[in-house]
Amino acid sequence: MNSLLTKSTVSDSLMEKGDLFSAVVLYEDLATRQRAMQICDRLVRKFWADVEFDFSWWRFDFLHDSALAGDAVRLAARSELVLVAAHAGRELPTAVKDWIESWLPIREPGFGVLVAMIGTEADRLKGLSPIHVYLREAAQRANMDYLPQVIDAPLGKLDTSIETIANRAEKVTSLLDGILHRPPTPLRWRINE
To answer: For 7-155, CATH number?
Structure first.
C-alpha cells in the first residue's frame, strides 16, 4: 500500500476552498472503515497545523434511508474529498451507485478528489477491479482527480490453478468488453469555446 494523498493534492484543493477541508467517507463495513481511518489519520497528522478537517462518515447501508442518503448527497456535492472504501468485487451496491449518480451532476466542476480504497488484505480478488473503472469514470464526469489505492496480490501466494486463471480471464474479458463497446467520448479541442 502506498500513501494516497500528497501534500500538493491537498494544498491545491485548500487554496481554492480556504482552510476547512471537508471530506465524505463512504465505507462498506468495519474492515473498510479501518482502512479509511488510517488514511484520514495520516492526513490529519500531516496537515493538522494548517488545516481544519471536517470528516463525514457514512456506511453503505445508511444510504438505504432516503433522508440520510439525501444528507450524504449534499455533503459529497461540496466536499473536497470523497473517499469510497469497499471490498473488492464486481460492482458497488445499487444504493451506493445511486448515491454517486445523485451528487455527480450537482458538484461544482473542477475541484476535489475521489479516492477509491477498494479491497482489503482478506479479499480474494486483488488488483484493479470493475469498481475502480466505475469510480474513475465517475470522477472524470465530475472533473475530479481520481486516486485509486490497490491491494496487489502477493507474488508468493498467487493461485495459479486452471480454475482461478479461467475465472480471472472471464472477469477481465467482461470488463474489457464493456470498455471496448462503450460509445466514444467526443473530443474537445477547446478551440473557440
So the answer is: 3.40.50.360
Residue found under cell 465505507: 27
DSSP designation for 190: -
* Cα 175 to Cα 187: distance, rounded to the nearest angstrom: 23
pLDDT digits (tens, 9 = 90+) for 45-75: 888 788 888 999 999 999 999 999 999 999 9
What residue type is 191 in one-letter code?
I
Taking the complete model, does pTM exceed 0.85, yes or no?
A: no
Distance CA 168, CA 54 (A): 40
Among residues 156, 113, 119, 127, which one has the least CA distance to residue 23? 113
Strands (E), the chain: 20-27, 52-59, 81-86, 113-118, 145-150
Q: What are the CA-CA distances from residue 4 to residues 54, 64, 150, 193 (Å)?
A: 18, 29, 10, 34
Give the H or E element holding residue 10: helix 7-17
Alpha helices (runs of H) in 20-79, residue ranges in sequence order: 30-47, 66-78
**Which amino acid is residue 20, in one-letter code?**
L
Q: Give pLDDT tens digits for 1-49.
A: 333 444 344 444 444 444 788 999 999 999 899 989 998 998 888 887 8
Give the start-to-end residue ranges of the domains of the chain. Answer: 7-155
